[in-house]
Give the backbone structure.
Amino acid sequence: MTARRYDVAVVGAGPAGAAAAVAACRAGARVVLLDRAEFPRDKPCGDGIAAEAVDVLADLGVSGVTDGFAPVANLRLVGPGGSSVSRALPRPAHTVPRRVFDARLVAAAVAAGAELRRHTVRGLDDPVLAAAGVVIGADGAGSVVRRALGHPVNPDGHLAFAIRGYAASANVEQLIVTTRARWPAYAWSFPIGDGTANVGYGEVLRGPALSRAYLLQRLGELMPGGEPHSLRAHHLPLSTRRPAPARGRFLLAGDALSLINPFTGEGIFYAVLSGALAGAAAVAGPERAAALYTRALRRRLGRHLRHSGVATRLTQQPRVVDAAVRAAGRNQAVFTRMVDLGLGDGVFDLRTIGRIGVELARRPASGP
C-alpha cells in the first residue's frame, strides 16, 4: 500500500503550523497537518495575542480568533530598578488561553482544506514526511525536525525558562515586572477578562537548571496574589540565536526557528507570521521553497530582528532598561516604539535612542 502523497506536510499544529497549513491550502496545495496531541489541548504560554498577530491571520482569511475575550487596552511596565510606566497600548491586545486559541486556528486550517492527523513524528524518515514534497517543522522548542537537521538546542544566554498558571485577578491591564535579580528576568500578569489572569515568571538560563519551587518563589515575590493553578513550565528559544530557516525541502517556523522575542517572551506574532510565510513558500515545491522562504523572512523580519538583537546587547545593564521605562513615561512615541519592538516587528530610531540616552544621563550610573 503506497502512502498518500502531499504537497506539504506540517509537523506541529500550534499557531505556526496552523498558519502554515492555511497559507499552503489557500495557494492550492494538498496539506497534511500533524500533531501528537488531540485538540483542544493546553499549551504553556503567556496567552497574549498582540494585534499584529491578528492582522497576519486576517490576511490569511482567519477571523474570530479572539471572540469572547475582552480587549486589553493598557500595559504597565515596571523596570528592574523600580521605574514604572502605564500607558494605552498602540492597539488593544487580548489574552486568549492557548486551549482556545490553538483549537480555533486548527479548525481554520481544516476548513481551508488541510488534513489533520494525530501522528507523532520521530525523525525525517517518517513515512508521512517521505510522502510530502516540502516539510515545515513547526513543532515547538523541542522540535524533532530541527534536531534532525543538525541544529542544537539554544545555548545558555539564548534560552529562557518560564512557569505560568492562572489566578484570580482584578487587574485590567497587562503588567510586566522586571527585576535586577538574575537579570534578564520578569514576572507577568495578563488579564483574561473573566476575573482571572495568566500569571508567570521566567528568566534567561545561565547555568544550573531552575526548579519549580524556585520559579514559584520568584513569581510570588514579584506578582503577589492568589495561588495560581494549572501550572506548567516551558522553554523559550530566543531569537538572538536562530538556526538556518531552511535546508533543502525542510523549513522551520515559530519556536522551532527560535522566534521568541528576547524582551517580552512573545512568540505568537512571530509564529503565525513565519508559518504564513513558510506555507506560502512551500507551494513552490522542494527545489525553490527554501530560497523563497529565506528571502521572505529576511524581507519581513530581518531589520526588526537586527534591531532587537542590538537592543538585547544594549540592555544587558538593567539601568538601561530603567532609563527606557522612564523615557517611555515621559514620551508616548518612546512607549510605542518599545511596544512595537516587543510585541510586533518594530524597530528603534535615533530619536528614541536619544531620549533613552538623556534619561541615562539624568541618573547616576548606579541607578535607583
Q: What stands out?
A: Residues 289-314 form the longest helix (26 residues). The chain has a mean pLDDT of 95. The CA atoms of residues 82 and 153 lie 34 Å apart.
